[in-house]
Structure formats: structure tokens, C-alpha cells
Amino acid sequence: DQQVKQNSPSLSVQEGRISILNCDYTNSMFDYFLWYKKYPAEGPTFLISISSIKDKNEDGRFTVFLNKSAKHLSLHIVPSQPGDSAVYFCAASADNYGQNFVFGPGTRLSVLP
Amino acid sequence: ETGVTQSPTHLIKTRGQQVTLRCSSQSGHNTVSWYQQALGQGPQFIFQYYREEENGRGNFPPRFSGLQFPNYSSELNVNALELDDSALYLCASSLGRTSGTDTQYFGPGTRLTVL
Question: Is A100 close to B45, i.e. CB distance below 8 A?
Fold first, then answer.
């Protein structure tokens, strides 16, 4: 029973355009969400986070949107760059201190030059 | 680079054997978490240690055990290996804050193959 779902295994986007990666969750107790990026042969790298008291968080080219009623979050990357090509994991936590995370299966983003 | 290292990079074992995987956390990070990532899946939480004591556990059997040492290193031990234990094992260290966000920094992982 997957509590965190990323229904698109892969996504291809042209360089300079917007990339939108989606994530859905089922556990209404989740109150903290993160996105990680993973390159081959490396561990996941923290990208951006959002807590349930917000519906948007921005960091440079990366913006995460949270829709609590729909149990849905999305990561927007604009403009997309070839270096953004990686696997992106959505993770959620119901822990007060956000330490124990449930990860989605990941979406492989390819940004084409 | 996160400053978190893991050894070995790759490991091949046979069913029924025991294995020890090692992780060296960032200096000053009191918390280490271990994850199992099967092919095509996201990391799955195994357990977490805070200042050398287990601080949470995922849905893994007791044959998965761990240790954390005062020098910011830790171990994941798996006994009686099964074919399904073949996966990438990731460790992640964090400060161990008691409030707010505690960002986890992942190592590159150890790829375990059980034959």
C-alpha cells in the first residue's frame, strides 16, 4: 500500500520550458513534505521542502505547491536545464520533527537540449 | 558532496550469509537513518539512531539491526540474507534537531546483491 505516489515514472521536457512533477499521498497525517533529486551513483540530495501550514514554497527555479484537500503536491522547475535531468523523489513525514520519511517511487526527468 | 560516506560501494553475498554495511556521517550529526531502495522504488525507511540509541523503526524484520558509534560512524547488519534483500542501502545523517526541520544528507549507497 503506497502512501506516497508518483504516477509518472518518467517525464521529458525541452530546455527552457517548465517541468512539473506530481506527487499524491494518502495519509492525512502527513504534515511535512520534501523533494529530493538523485543522480546516478549518488545518494538523494535535498531540493526543497514545504510544511502543511503553507501552500507554496519557492527557492530559485524550484517551487513546490501543496494542495492539502486534494492530498497533492507538485514541483515546478522553470526554466528547466539539462543539469536538472535526474530522478526526483517526493517524501512525506507525519513526524513532528520531520525525521522519518516515506518516499515515493520517483520520476525520471529528462531535460532535452 | 554531502560529506556522508558509505562502504563498501558494491557487495555480493549468498543467501543465508550475514552482511555489515558501514556509514560515516557528517561531523556533528547526531542522527543517522538507514534506507533500503529496491530497483525502481523509492527509499524505504529501515530505522534511525540518535546518539547511539534506536529512535524509530520501519517495517523490517529483526534480522536487520544497527549500531551507531560516538565517532559519527554507524553500521547496518543483516543476518540470514534473502534474495529480496538485494537493493541499494542508503544512510542519511542529520543534526537531530528537536524542533523544526531536520534535513537529511544521504551517502552514495551500498549496492548489495544476494545470490
Answer: yes
Cα(A100)–Cα(A92) distance, integer angstroms? 8
Q: How confident is the model at residue A98 (pLDDT cuts 50, 70, 90)?
A: very low
- Residue A16: all three cell numbers together: 527552457
Instruction: Write the CA distances from A75 to A20, A30, A59, B36, B94, integer angstroms.
Output: 6, 17, 11, 24, 24
Chain segment B3-50, per-residue pLDDT in tens: 899 999 999 999 999 999 999 998 888 889 999 999 889 999 999 898
Q: What is the pLDDT at residue B72?
A: 86
From chain A, the residues in CB contact with B107 under 8 A are 43
- Maximum alpha-carbon separation in chain A: 42
Q: From chain A, pick out residues whose CB is under 8 angstroms from the CB of B33.
A: 99-100
Peptide linkage before B8 cis (omega within 30 of 0): yes
Evaluate whether A53 touches A3 at the Cβ level (below 8 Å): no
- Give the span between the Cα atoms of A14 and A111, in whole angstroms: 6
Cβ of residue B10 closer than 8 Å to a chain A Cβ: no
Query: Cβ of B99 under 8 Å from any chain A Cβ?
Result: yes
* pLDDT at res. A96: 55
